[in-house]
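Handout, section 4.2: multi-component inputs.
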Amino acid sequence: MPLWKIYHPVGVFSREDKQGLSEAITAIYARNLPKFYVGVVFQEVAADSFFIGGEPTGDFVRIWVDHIARTMPTPEIRAKFIEMVDAVLAPYVRDRGLRWECHIDETSYELWSIHGYRPPLPGTEDEKRWRAENRPSPVGPREVTA
Amino acid sequence: MPLWKIYHPVGVFSREDKQGLSEAITAIYARNLPKFYVGVVFQEVAADSFFIGGEPTGDFVRIWVDHIARTMPTPEIRAKFIEMVDAVLAPYVRDRGLRWECHIDETSYELWSIHGYRPPLPGTEDEKRWRAENRPSPVGPREVTA
Amino acid sequence: MPLWKIYHPVGVFSREDKQGLSEAITAIYARNLPKFYVGVVFQEVAADSFFIGGEPTGDFVRIWVDHIARTMPTPEIRAKFIEMVDAVLAPYVRDRGLRWECHIDETSYELWSIHGYRPPLPGTEDEKRWRAENRPSPVGPREVTA
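Output:
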């Protein structure tokens, strides 16, 4: 959680761009979550395999995100989060004249494992330790909370 | 919204096929939505990386779709939509002897942005303008509708 | 259903590994479902396009799964399933010193088609036949079950 999949035209992002964007994405979450929760996969797509509105595109960045560790409970929080995402993306897309689209799906905390562990619940001591150490380690039994 | 991801064997689709299929997919939505909402990404997968039922495959097209702008409210509408999708796919898959599978996920309208805008709600004047101009532009404040 | 997408570092899985892992994944489901329901797509990702916690990674396997044919009704079943998945993955990831993460999304049975058919409902004679024959064939009318 989160997994960011970034489809982008060939050659628009350098190695440094990808590093920088990944760090900026990770920073969105790192206040609350272990850093190693944040996965980012970049994938180049050639213009003849990438269509927007039925037309081949060489200037569009399409981002698909799955959120697992947290769901956002209110419309206001969701709106705020999307704003934060756009602020992070802006230097890499808008400021370079690229078009972009981003959407986020939310999936079940219970259908998730990291390194064979079921990740600790939000706010637990286990989660704090994972965050402090930036790696998974054995967790106590999870109380089933619905 | 929608994002179509099409995994396909190496070499089964020409540039013209991909163009034609993307246009046909876009047409499914264009009666109601701005054309530029429709993203299609084709990805070739080599037989040694593509397994169906545990066997390497060179004849299977696997399509995964995320719907964001609209959710389908009734079983009848969902059935109808799937039929429409299959009709669009048939010339590119069935009629060539390829096997295929397609599934659609529906994700939150509120966790979505295009070019830094939160897309206008269905049926609004903003959405009509986006559709008429086939590009995003500033939108009025969104009433939170739960 | 299920679709398994496996992002992995370059060169960590041989052709035989991918075959073996696909068969093991298929076996998880084959007690209940037609084998050909199980799709697995492997995708190599270069270290400069694959980031965990903001750092380029060459030792992480990130697995994303969509479940369609079945949803898991209780926390206990979900926990059990995730354990089963980890047991299947262990020889290919943990035992090789790779890190990994896996999450599963559940999507709508009604927004799914295979080879132009809407797959039969769980436990029906049609589904048994599909399973026995390991291929799709015409199905009777589906009762809408909400």
